[in-house]
Amino acid sequence: MFVIVLNRSNLINSDNNTLVYEFPSSVHFNDESIAVTSISMYYSWFNISSALGNNTITYTWTELAATTTYTITIPDGLYEISDLNSLFHYEMVQNNTYLINDAGSYVYYFNIEVNATRYAIQLDTYNVPTVLPAGWSLPVGLANLPTTSFNPIVTFPASFNSIVGYVPNSGVFSSNENLNNAYTPSASPSPSTFYESKVGSTLSYLSNVSPNVQPNSSLYVAITGIDNKYANPSSVIYSVVPTVGLGQQIIEKPPNLIWNRLINGFYSSIRLQFLGSDLAPIKLNDPNMTIILAIKDKGELH
Fold first, then answer.
1. pLDDT tens across 128-185, in order?
2. Which of 12, 132, 258, 277 is 20 to 30 A removed from 177 (C-alpha atoms)?
3. d(CA 279, CA 46)
């Protein structure tokens, strides 16, 4: 059995997902097999990014009778739902689309959170008043309240919608006409059902498919030259599942080596790629990694 080691010196692209091991001289494989012995790398791939196309949402705000739609662009990163909610509130402050209560606290008019008991993401929208409550004030950049009260209309565009668990193109919530509708409970809200509950003028929605907060919850390891007629693509030989937080080290050591036959022939190099759940190469932000592969002849017992 022979061992080869790949590390950051073998990377060939800026996305840090493709490594090439050059043999000292051309080698002939004849009934050899290859297996992953160990992988050491850092959890450095994002769940939201411009490359993934899932980094925007929109919401509306009305001042007097003029309604403006704001787009929130989420910086590339690895986010939990609470992180996203904090970011949305921050952007609402930047857009002056909030109010200040009598205690000096900022009041936001939509909110997302995890509803653990329903295995869902809950969106709540609140009614913006036409008259300030006693002691409340407008932010410096907001001149007027609306002439007609409203709940912000929040839209989860395609791609982002899967992060929070709403079906594609269902993502327009809190239209004013909902406030006049009777509440009809629904175990699985849909675009036609629109909302899950209404208390006064507060509208609450539950995601109707399982949230996929990390679209790439595991990575596939693909190697060129694999002879596997039962798989498509045949190049995938292993998967890496992070069990640590962002920026922490992942250490993979399979308890048993999973041997994969190599196509017979002459090789000058072996190429290894990390793929996302869509089987496309995924951007890794940290190039520090060590991958150890083992190659054995057909007749070797160990």
1. 999 999 999 999 999 999 999 988 988 888 889 889 988 665 545 544 434 444 434 4
2. 132
3. 16
Give residue for tokens 């997902």.
17
Q: Render 247-289 in DSSP notation, one character per residue.
A: TSEEEE--SS---EEBPSEEEEEEEEEEE-TTSSB---S----
Task: Write b or e for each residue in 65-94: b if 16 or more Cβ atoms lie within 10 A of its Cβ, otherwise e.
Answer: eeeeeeebebeeebbebeebbebbeebbee
Q: Looking at domain 2-45+216-296, which CATH architecture does it have?
A: Sandwich (2.60)
Tens-place pLDDT, residues 226-257: 999 898 899 999 999 999 988 999 999 999 99
b/e for 20-37, b at 16 or more Cβ within 10 A?
bbeeeeeeebeebbbbbb
Which letter does DSSP use for residue 300 in this model? -
- Compute CA 40 distance to the chain's CA centroid, rounded to the nearest angstrom: 22
| Torsion sign (Cα): 243, 285, 271, 227 | positive
Place of tokens 């292993």: 238
